[in-house]
């Protein structure tokens, strides 16, 4: 344990330097979904590969058809396990820009009235701050001991926020290089500020963009209004039909493969003392809006959803324009649970839309990613060791939770490489990821590094 | 008639010069609804006042709280009637810009396969090309005869496309100066390319922008999806509720004041041999989308509508963002007929929306203009003289029609000045006003000038 203690001390001593490195990374606007930022994505990959090289990894930037991957290898002690660390260097778009209190790519340290500090920037929590906790732990291990307690491969993606189109081809083409004993995925939250969490359940995701088209051009609503189909009206009607009055999704077959929550899992969740009032209250809401008769935890962890993530059509600028648009579109996503099949959900949605089209209207669809839900085994030895290590670092022992969000890479690691993942992250529920003023707690950044040092030591010790 | 013949010959001879003047006016991007173009609106007003001064009018640019008005006076023969000509120099926005085949403010003459020519530019038909037909007729009259056959006041507005906020205060403040025996309004269409029309009925308009708000910020659809209200979903549901399956508007009280079409008007419309197939077919449609059991002419001339002119919320850029938006908005307009009351319709819509809001949601409203429907008397002596003059110019005699669009100034002339209007315009149904590639037929521009010379002569002769 002397080694680990000196590593932890090293992390404490070098927090400001680590913060400086994170700041450099956060300044790069690596928005993967917008082609205008392709060069910035590459720059972020090169920055990370350079940093990993400096630590002593054998790091490389690997081209794909989209944004590049970063892959870096470091040996471990003979007989020690091989871990694959996964994170992503790309970030979400920043709009609406006017709601940011400081520019999204000028990282700002803000001290709160209670004395805590936070790092405010796009990507601070999702996922640059998180992935740097692992890299800093490795750096300190190398500095203090000259090596790492496990064989470590670091694998950083640049398309996580845009459907990961290059991920599967890359995993397939580099299977031997990436296969490890267990994957460590750092893109999730703690249970609360004092309680670390390992996420063992994840909802899946299907994204669809649907465009409704009617007339061959925009029309004047005076001349044609009353006689011409209005794509906004058609789209609104179809979207409105997707939920019934009890909040259930009406698409035929949507609930195929959706199980009721097992009693043992329900018992674990009941023990978490989750406050629905606090969860909704933090964002100005008070009444659960999902399926009637389900708890909020069920609604966000164990029930599927249909959400409308964007909609646009007609004149949306200042003032008014009496136009009937030629087309309108919506971005729709489905969160999946248990055994729901992404391909079947996508097909059922498309059939639902096309079967509702009135005369003279057409629908076009564009897919945006698809992944099934994930459930990790509760009895994994890796899970037990990581739980113990995390419980050492934080005031409360680590808990096992589920997640409403999707991390498709976990499913791909399992399907393509046969590799389980440990989902360990240090985000907080109020980090505003995907929203203006995204932040990462300084405590998350600092104790996250210390946590990874402990986890690496525990996993490495497993081989001894 | 010798005078009129020489005026008509002068118009024929100077068509190219007239086209040059229209081109100068069309180059000015006088988009009234967007504050970025305020200086251009003023420039258009100053251009027109300068041109009218050059003809011999006493012209001035008159400031308002918004865009300026142009008012110009010219005396007529003793005992001749006084006519007020109305047009508007402002234009609609140009988006979607990428659909224009030539830049909207670089007027282009396009020759069609059948040998006809058209002027392509934003505002060519609505309303710069139209208002210039009258100014050119005055110019030729002055050049050939040294005077005008009527006393003429020209009144040009710069806010017609943005709800005319300054119109009523200006009319009230300048009542004595603007009051004439009859108003001539040039902002309407012919019945077809060979048949001039005088519009005697106009639908009214109420515009509303509604914004639905839920959470205090944008949310991640993984963390909150299923538990949080989604404003796009709430908005879509409310919009979908506005029409029933028969295309009728469900807002309580909406049809108060809506009469069935009188038999004599229905007889006139039946005689027009209107082709529903051609009307819808020109914009790629085939099936009337309005109230079931109503003809297309009824749907667009004599029935009220609710149309959704714009909608926006959440992420609408390239790619995908799994966000639940904090708010979403729609621009909604209602076309009114007969005795529907704009204020009551607006209030009923707002009540309809607020009564449907679920918990944690709020609605905000912004009004965009409101005017009742108009019906002009069929037995006016001005109408008879104008019909005769128009029938002289065109292959077919003039017909009396209604219009689906709204021209609020006609109601204000009646209510505030006690003045009837003759709505005479030379637009065509396929002019794409408010749409990309707006055009004005060269025939409309040329024979429109000749028509006004004939109408002025006929109205002036009325005093003889």
From TrEMBL, chains A, B:
InterPro entries: Cyt/Met_Dipeptidase, Peptidase_M20, Peptidase_M20_dimer. GO terms for molecular function: metal ion binding; peptidase activity. One of its GO terms (biological process) is proteolysis. Residues 200-360 form the Peptidase M20 dimerisation domain. It comes from the Bacteria. Coiled coil: none annotated. Keywords: Hydrolase, Metal-binding, Protease. SUPFAM superfamilies: Zn-dependent exopeptidases. PANTHER family: BETA-ALA-HIS DIPEPTIDASE, SUCCINYL-DIAMINOPIMELATE DESUCCINYLASE. This is M20/M25/M40 family metallo-hydrolase. It comes from Aurantimonas marianensis. The lineage of its organism: Bacteria, Pseudomonadati, Pseudomonadota, Alphaproteobacteria, Hyphomicrobiales.
